[in-house]
Amino acid sequence: MRKILVIGAGGQIGIELVIRLRQMIGNDQVVAADIKEQCPDALLNGPYERMDALERDDVRSFIIEEKITEVYLLAALLSATAEKNPAFAWKLNMEGLFTILDLAKEGHVKKIFWPSSIAVFGPTTPQVNTPQLTIMEPTTVYGISKQAGERWCEYYYDQYGVDVRSIRYPGLISYTSLPGGGTTDYAVDIFYQAKLRNKYTCFLSENTRLPMMYMQDAIRATIELMDAPKNKIKIRSSYNLSGCNFTPKEVTEEILLHQPEFEVNYEPDFRQKIADTWPGSIDDNSSRNDWGWCEQVDLKELVRLMLLNVNVELLTK
Ligand code: AKB
Asked: How many whole angstroms separate alpha carbon 85 and alpha carbon 79?
């Protein structure tokens, strides 16, 4: 019997992942856990646990007592926030991972999903169609923690047979909940400001190309990777994954087709320096060949769906 725990369920990916997993295997089989005291409204249809990913003993006893079989460990500080608090980012992004890897090593957990990111790449990485295997010299604390995490995932698989699976997420675009603390967040903010004020001040420069993905594709990728037969998973560090890629100027041009009065100006801040070290596009042939990945949402459709669904009331909640 599958019983899933999603740690960091209150975040941008977590909420949508829990909703989808509950639709698939039943509300009671998917426990949402987050540091927030209150369960997010969207997750009230199933069990919720207040959990601090850094409280190793509490996390361990919950997983063992509740007979959790799969863990999705999403609690992390993203690139921009991590730069403001490097020591805490390192602690949060690494310690929680060891807690779950150790539980799997001891046989308490059967499968783990742990997200990596395009932040594992750095200024010396080829920026166009970045290969799965390439130079990785990340310059952010977030990128360093994700790269180290990838190495540890592969190590636990090689040494102890831990079934851990991972994706290097690009920037994720969604409307159900707000992102927090990422460099790619402009590509979500822009839709809220387009609706609210018909104006946006972008914190990246107009020609900064970054890999992006619509959330529906990202959730599907996560579930397809986790459901793939074990012998199909050839990469135990983390898979490159591509949806689409665009610059602030290109997404603006697409929004202008729907809202001709929309105005954007550019005031790059410290996040520009981070974005400049990341790839513009990703080669994800390993994901396509190994477990059949194929994206569905391109820039045009992403813009249409975001403008249709973004609810500006979320900004004041
Ligand atoms: C961020 O911008 O930090 C994240 C990521 C690409 O991992 N969205």
From this structure: 10
